Amino acid sequence: MKVLSEDRTRILFEKLTKYIGVNVKLLIDRPDGTYCFREKKDRVYYISERLLQLAQTVKPDHLVSAGTCFGKFTKTNKFRLHITALTYIAPYAPFKIWVKPSSEQQFLYGHHVIKSGLGRITENTPKHQGVVIVTMADIPIGFGVTARTTAECRHADPLATIAFHQADIGEYIRSEDTLV
Amino acid sequence: MGRKAKFDETKKVKKGPGRKARKQPDPVFKKGLIDDDKEDKKLSHRQKQRAARRLKKKKELLEKRKALKEAKKSTPQPENEEQEGMSSEEEEQNGFTDDNKDWLKPKKKGVQSKKDMDSQSDESDKDEEDDDEESDDNDDKVGTLDDLFNDTDDENKDEASSDEDKQISNKTAYDSDSDNDESDDSNEESDMLPIEKANIKLKKKRKQDAKLADDEMQLNISKQDVFAFPSEEELNNPTSLQDVHQRIKDVVAVLSNFNQLKDEGRSRCEYTDLLLKDLCTYYSYNEFLMEVLMQIFPVQELVEFLEASEIARPVTIRTNSLKTRRRDLAQALINRGVNLDPVGKWSKVGLVIFSSTVPIGATPEYLAGHYILQGASSFLPVMALAPQENERILDMCAAPGGKASHIAAIMKNTGALFANDANKDRTKAVVGNFHRLGVVNAIICNYDGRQFPDVIKGFDRVLLDAPCTGTGVIAKDPSVKTTKDQKDIQRCFNLQRQLLLAAIDCCNAKSSTGGYVVYSTCSILPEENEWVVNYALKRRNVKLVPTGLDFGTEGFVKYRHHRFHPSLKLTRRFYPHTHNMDGFFVAKLKKFSNVIPKSANDEDEEEITVEESENKEPVQNGDVSDEKDINNVKPENKKNKRTATDGTENSIHPQKKIKTDPINSQLPSTQENGKNKAKNKQKKKKNKNKQAKPALEQNVNKTESKSETKEENDTDIKKDSTESSVNLLNNDMAKKNKNKKKKKNKKKTDNVQTNAIVKTNVDNVSEKVQIAAAKKLKKKNKKKKPIGVRIERNKNVTTQGNKQQKKLKKQKTKS
Fold it and tell me: Quick one: closest CA in A to B417, which residue?
């Protein structure tokens, strides 16, 4: 559990900003104690300071996870958001895409969101904006990046991709071992 | 139906058909029902015509019959029975002698022809019987013969009515029932409608059937009563599983009422052995496990348990209260085609799944962390633990994280939760589940649980769901049936003991809200449950408290030769056959002192085990009951003994534990007084000199003389027993008396001779008491030990002391 380097912190926040915009600061300034990002084996954990102190009593070799894993830095030093971050991202995300019940399952298997499965989309979503995918019952089920703006979606072909798949909660089953 | 009109303008009536607008189709009734309804209807013209015709026909029939009866009376007529038996008689005619044949044949035909002329209704009545008799020729021979007698009588005398009585007398008992009555009927109730006749006949038939059935029952019962012990051959050549099953049932029945049902010359042992073998073959267990199970359950219950262990328990899920509510989840799942119900009143988060059209472990709700698949029994330890918000809690064997996430959910993600598991691969499941369920206050680590006290201590609550043989979840993993033997169990409970001690060490007794340890296993073997807890009770400053679970059976206090601490009845056992959940055991311990009454050094332990192996047994005996001598307690000695037993857990001699009442338990100690006294006293002395750190200074040379040590002890007692010295003296006296009376040992007399010796004796006895030990320790270490702990100890001491006094008084009165 080490502090993130400046460079990596910047990369991390840039990534988070893509999804939750200015709400990033809400992750840092919280009413229920201070929270921080810590890095362990290229994984980034979001953890409260209080819990961090306790976690430091555990030897690094024996520590499996503490707090919430947000994602990992790839070998090319890019940050990849994991589905485990959804707990924190979903409530703050300004842009969302709702998918129809019929295409929920498709998305959970790792497919992109196509026009025919699109239930709703936040107004004025720009292109290549990080979005949270939710079901019509408002259950967040993953992240994506929009392929088209809201306006373009209206006139899109039924099979046209609206949002690219990035992570979905199906990964909890599909790739439990590589989750963290 | 439909929506009610709302004429008041303020309330807006929704448009559209509404949620329940789908109309029910018209009800479909059975034909019979509809007919009944239509009876009131007017008949159509044709129906009327038909009815009239029917009536007419009926009248004609009646007249015909009357005419026939008259004809019968005038000409000798075969009875109804005869007519019934017609066809069979014809077949049997071959059996008769020649002269009989001569007159029989023509008559028969005549009768038949007459019968043909008979009314259709008559025939229809008897058709059935004819058929029956045709099919059962052989069976009915007796009856038909009688009929023939009738015939001959009739023909010879030509006086049907007058001779009927004689005929009756000729008939066998079997036929007299039906045939006579019928003949009576034909005479007296000639006016009866055919349907009435049929009715009467039916009733008789039923009566007979019932009688037969009764007879059969009696036969069966008498058969059951005499279950014959199978011979060697039968045992060596097993036939079918059904037979084995039947034999199991029989043996169980015999065992349940052994005195009356046993075979002469067979002992109970033989029956139980037979049962054991049969159960092993039928349920495919290995003999060892079956033997163990037979010791736990009475036979009847055992069979129930085995049956229940064959069937999987219903799938249950736990609502993740961090993300959703049970009602919402239930609604969502019902919409997906899942048939579910709340698990019971005792849980607010559990749901039972009866059937499902979708895989319950892969619905979007599951993936979104709204619930987790978890056996109902797994809720229990967490409920017993009763975590509070903002506590620091440890789950020592957490994988795959079901119980740990339950704890986090109850804590509402506050405080800190340590989820530990020894298996690194399995911790991945914990990580996955925690993230899925949105548990953010958790630290997941991968230690051997036994080393956890070295990592971090001071938890408010600790949950230990220990690895076990899994005898409670045979339905889940049937391999348990055949793979477990004594060694596995021993390995398991050794590990469990160490883990439980580690768990207790991790817990903080001074916690304002907690200080609790919950121990649970999914095994039902007392070796892995009560015995482990009993072990911990002796070696740590913990006591059992009620689990807070309002169902489940009480834990064992006695099991075979084991006699556990009486408070073990506060633990809870759950069985598949009684509670319809996996077999489970839950015990809740409250830690009342952080002092570890044991030496920290393993080397010390070993030495002690060598030196003081004699001391162990009395210690354990005393544990059970001798709480009264608290004041005299010499903690160091206790420490020694405990540590000694620590080293060799298996060397416990359970048989000695049988003696639970204070007097008896005293005896072993007195027996070994000579040896023990000296050692103990020496150690005490040394410890005093060093100002007694709790556990370290026990292995001391035994050099000093007995007399010195005695004096030491006396002074000790005076110092220590300030609070209840009077009571103590009384107690001592009582003990003295008892010792005298028992006179089992030579050394006893020595003890009685001098006060000093008596006191030391009492000391020895009291040394066995853990709590007492704690107290003494406290006194010696007053400056070091915290106040809270002290207070607790005092409370304990006093209450227990009182109890002891009461006990003693009772014994006095008895003696």
Answer: A51
Inter-chain residue contact A66 with B424, CB threshold 8 Å: no
Task: Tell if the CB–CB gap between A63 and B364 is shorter than 8 Å.
Answer: no
| Domain housing A159 | 95-175
Residue contact A64–B447, C-beta within 8 A: no
Q: By three-state DSSP, how is residue B537 classified?
A: helix
B23 is in an annotated binding site: no
Nearest to B436 among A50, A59, A172 (CB): A172
ipTM of model: 0.96
User: Which pLDDT score is estimated for B25?
Assistant: 75
**A54, B416: Cβ pair inside 8 Å?**
yes
Quick check: pTM over 0.90?
A: no
Mutate one of B445, B448, B459 to test the A interface: name it (highest A CB count within 10 A): B445
Note whether A9 and A82 are same-domain residues.
Answer: yes
Instruction: Using CB atoms, pick whichever of B365, B438, B445 lies closest to residue A63.
Output: B445
When mean pLDDT is compared across A39-43, A173-177, B154-158, B629-633, the lowest value belongs to B629-633
Question: Residues of chain B whose pLDDT is less than 50?
Answer: 77-95, 106-185, 599-770, 772-774, 776-804, 815
Judged against a pLDDT cut of 90, whether residue A132 lies above it is answered with yes
**How far apart, in Å, are the Cα atoms of B26 and each of B20, B29, B37?**
16, 9, 16
Residue B456, chain A, CB below 8 Å: the answer is yes
Residue B585's nearest CA partner among B538, B540, B646, B544 is B544
Please, is B338 exposed, middle or buried when counting C-beta atoms within 10 Å of its C-beta (0-12, 13-18, 19+)? buried
The label of the residue with tokens 């007195």 reads: B670
Identify the CATH number of the domain in which residue A39 sits. Answer: 3.10.450.220
Tell me the CATH number for domain B376-596.
3.40.50.150
The total domain count for chain A is: 2
pLDDT for B758 equals 43
Residue A180 falls within a domain, yes or no?
Answer: no
Within-domain flag for A109: yes
Position A134 pLDDT exceeds 90: yes
User: Are the Cβ atoms of B428 and A63 closer than 8 angstroms?
Assistant: no
CB contact under 8 A, B443 and A140: no
Chain B: nearest CA to A115, how far in angstroms?
Answer: 21
What's residue B91's pLDDT?
A: 43
For residue range B686-704, list pLDDT tens digits in order. Answer: 444 444 444 334 443 443 4
Please provide the average confidence, as pLDDT, over all residues in chain B: 70
B522 is catalytic: yes
Contacts of residue B166, defined as CB under 8 A and 6 or more positions apart, other chains included, come to B153
pLDDT tier, A180 (very low <50, low <70, confident <90, very high otherwise):
confident
User: From CA A121, how far away is CA B145, in angstroms rounded?
Assistant: 96
User: Residue B690 in contact with residue B647, Cβ under 8 Å?
Assistant: no
**Interfacial B residues in 420-439 facing A (CB < 8 Å):** 424, 427-432, 434-436, 438
A50: chain B residues, CB-CB within 8 Å: 416
B673, B756 Cβ separation under 8 angstroms: no
- Is B403 annotated as ligand-binding? yes
The pLDDT assigned to B72 comes to 75
The 3-state secondary structure of B36-90 reads: HHHCCCCCCHHHHHHHHHHHHHHHHHHHHHHHHHHHHHHCCCCCHHHHHHHHHHH
Query: Domain check: are A123 and A163 in the same one?
Result: yes
Q: What topology is assigned to B314-373 in CATH?
A: Alpha-Beta Plaits (3.30.70)
Say whether both A55 and A124 belong to one domain.
Answer: no
